[in-house]
Amino acid sequence: MATNQHYDVVIVGAGVSGALIAKQLGAAGKSVLLLEAGEDGQLSNAESLERFYTAQAKVPESPYSPPIVTPDAAGIQSPSNPDEMTIGRATTLMLDEANWQKSDQAYMDQQGPLAFASTYERIGGGTGRHWLGTSFRLLPNDFKMKTVYDVEEDWPISYDDLEVWYGKAEHEIGVAANAADQGYHGITFAPGYNYPMPQIPDSLVDAAVEEGLSVLPPQEGIKLGVTNTPAARNSVPFQNRRQCAGNTNCIPICPIQAKWDPTVTLYEALQNPHVAILYKTVAKEILIGDDGNVSGISYLQYETLDGGATGNGTVSAERYIIAAHAIETPRLLLMSTNGGKLPNGAANSSLAVGKHLMDHPIYLSWAQTAEPVYGYRGPLSTAGIETMRDGTFRSEHAAFRIEIGNEGWNFPIGDPYTSTLDFVLGTNISQLNQTKKAHFGTGLVAGLNQALISQFRLGFLVEQTPEDYCAVSLSDTYKDKLGLPRPRITYDLSDYTKMGFVAAKKVSSNIYGAMGAEEFTTHPTAKEAAADPSSFSVTYDAGGKVVPEGTAGATTDHFRYFGAGHIVGTYRMGDDPKSSVVNWEQRSWDHKNMFLVGSGVFPTVATGNPTLTIAALALWAADIILADLE
Ligand SMILES: Cc1cc2nc3c(=O)[nH]c(=O)nc-3n(C[C@H](O)[C@H](O)[C@H](O)COP(=O)(O)OP(=O)(O)OC[C@H]3O[C@@H](n4cnc5c(N)ncnc54)[C@H](O)[C@@H]3O)c2cc1C
Ligand code: SF4
User: Fold this and answer.
1) What InterPro entries has UniProt attached to this entry (predicted)?
2) SS3 296
3) Which residues line ligand 2 (CB under 6 A)?
4) Are strands 594-596 and 309-322 parallel, antiparallel or unpaired?
5) Nearest ligand for residue 131 CA
6) FRET partner for 443 with CA separation of 20 to 30 A, picked from 53, 134, 468, 543?
7) How confident is the model over 12-36, as pLDDT tens digits?
């Protein structure tokens, strides 16, 4: 396909949303061109694995391009300089106090007051290259928070509207679960509905938590229970891919692709002669014609990841889909000023583009069980506690789901490496080598075994409220090597969200108490919280109301939070063009032949990991676009 051809549809971004829509439209005989900023994600799979195996810092971005570290003249690996990167993206390496605002290390121009702690990928397949695969449906009440709890916003669609698309998405990406276990908090399935694969078995850690919960009294009036987690991971051979071998490496890369990732669907789409892709092609402006419709998309192309632009072009179509995720999509919209004709960018008559940036900030806690649970076997997580995703408490504080980790203390302290070094060197960073003795021989092996087989952690994914002050805009100071402004981020957490952390901490300690587990969670001191951009302090009274620090009788807690990678909300859907960017169809209010897809359309972050909902909405959008094109 030549690029000067006029297409039925042009899609910007070949991640979850872009790949799913391309496959559907191609199958219906429509000509589709994908513009993808990154390299071909699957052809470099072997290289990605090698890069991950040899990486010193094994963070989610380690396997993928552009490299997050680059050797200097002396061969020492240092964080890659975003000024020198053709297509930068955020990395978790930058999130500590020392680096988060250093422009030669951090791609995003973070203005605070808190750090936005989540990252994404810019490679064929997108962020789904390193996702975990957790595939939840949202709850009916997640769609109507304003109506039910008088907080946040209602969505313009309901669970019932989305139910059929959830089923299609589960079958398209291949989700393993048992419908009989997933019907909690009002979730319903079509009569006789089955997931395409049986569930992944629970781990021994899940069983230990479940046993503990059996003696735990209700929390805020809710009896907690363990539920198997639906996952886009093969429990049996499925769609020519192998079943999960259980080696706990799902983030950042499944070596055998038992976990679905978007390159699976993308490559299926590209088998179709109607679908084409341009890699290393960065959309830089959405062009708006005199009739208010999109008339084309202009792009830059490059050869090397640090070389700058080597070409450019414009492409046109009947329909345009922007699927570049919740930071790069608003960045592209805001860059699309059309020579000053649209000073606030494309699709932005509401001025809502970029606003309401959300995540599920994570409260992380960790403990050792009395009896061994043998983590590090099976996927990173196979079950969770979903019971506190909903309840009357949502009028007062944020809800959360609780992910049961199956990878020891890898997330909280970087184990097994940290404890191993403690035992070899005689240090005690892990708190497991209290004597600070260096061990060797059989003593080393026995000590480490004892320590590692009882470790587990809980991750509380806390609901964050949509706020104007959490926003993506364009940096007026920093650019990437293509000369495009880098994303600027302002970010903070509301009292409602912070009180979700307070509730999570209480529930967490109560769970460990009921299990007879020894908790090792550490919290920052007041001074550390004040200095750390990923920490906050919150003071509250006996009624759970946030009050000024120093109030008599009040309690102050200090928390460190982590990003979940659930980047949401920056081009929200709604019923009113004055306050939303797209309508329920995900169609731009301002430019009727353009659709904005992905989690940026979510009006609230809700209580489930977002990607199954992204996939369901993408399939729905494809259907709407097909009807449009008929
Ligand atoms: C560590 C981690 C674990 C996660 N685990 C889960 C999980 O278990 N469950 C879950 O539900 N979610 C999870 N997520 C979130 C999930 O990965 C995202 O929700 C999902 O990938 C978003 O899909 P998308 O298609 O909207 O965006 P992406 O997958 O990010 O795709 C966007 C694409 O657009 C391209 N692009 C960007 N800018 C441009 C441009 N200007 N021109 C052309 N192309 C462009 C990018 O290169 C990319 O390929 C996780 C995220 C992280 C970080
Ligand atoms: S546990 Fe291993 S095989 Fe299974 S999905 Fe995760 S990485 Fe792939």
Assistant:
1) FAD/NAD-bd_sf, GMC_OxRdtase_N, GMC_OxRtase_C, P2Ox-like
2) strand
3) 233, 244-250, 254, 256, 258-259, 379
4) parallel
5) 1
6) 53
7) 999 999 999 999 999 999 999 999 9
Residue 2, pLDDT score: 43
| Same domain? 498 vs 592 | no
Whole-Å CA distances, 438 to 43, 347, 435, 441: 44, 61, 9, 11
This prediction has a pTM of 0.97
Residue 169 burial (CB count, 10 A): 26
Q: Which amino acid is at 56?
A: Q
Query: What are 306's two structure tokens?
Result: 């640090």
C-alpha 377 – ligand 2 centre gap (Å): 10
584 is in which domain, residue-wise?
1-69+80-195+254-358+473-489+568-629
Provide the b/e sequence for 225-252 (b: ≥16 CB within 10 Å): ebbbbbbbbbbeebeebebbebebbbbb
pLDDT at 121: 96
CATH number of the domain to which 550 belongs? 3.30.410
Residue 345 shares a structural domain with residue 389: no
* Alpha-carbon span 92 to 457, nearest angstrom: 20
First-to-last alpha carbon distance for the chain, in angstroms, is 22
* φ, ψ at 142 (rounded to 5°): -60, -25
Structure tokens at 508: 């967490």
Please name the residues in contact with 521: beta carbons below 8 A apart, sequence gap of 6 or more: 364, 365, 366, 367, 412, 508
Ligand 1 centroid to Cα of residue 326, in Å, is 8
DSSP characters for 172-208?
HHT-B--GGGS--TT----TT---SBPPPPPPHHHHH
State the pLDDT at residue 404. 98
Between CA 526 and CA 503 the distance in angstroms is 19
Q: Kindly state whether residues 343 and 376 are assigned to the same domain.
A: no
- Ligand 2: atom nearest CA of 248 is 1
* Burial of residue 340, with CB atoms counted within 10 A of its CB: 0-12 exposed, 13-18 middle, 19 or more buried: exposed
Show Cβ contacts of residue 200 under 8 Å, excluding neighbours closer than 6 positions.
176, 228, 229, 231, 233, 235, 244, 378, 379, 382
Mark whether 10 and 118 lie in a shared domain: yes
Ligand 1 centroid – CA 611 distance (Å): 9
User: Where does the pLDDT of residue 1 fall: very low under 50, low under 70, confident under 90, or very high at 90 and above?
Assistant: very low
Q: Are residues 16 and 132 in the same domain?
A: yes
Tokens 């010193």 map to which residue? Answer: 56
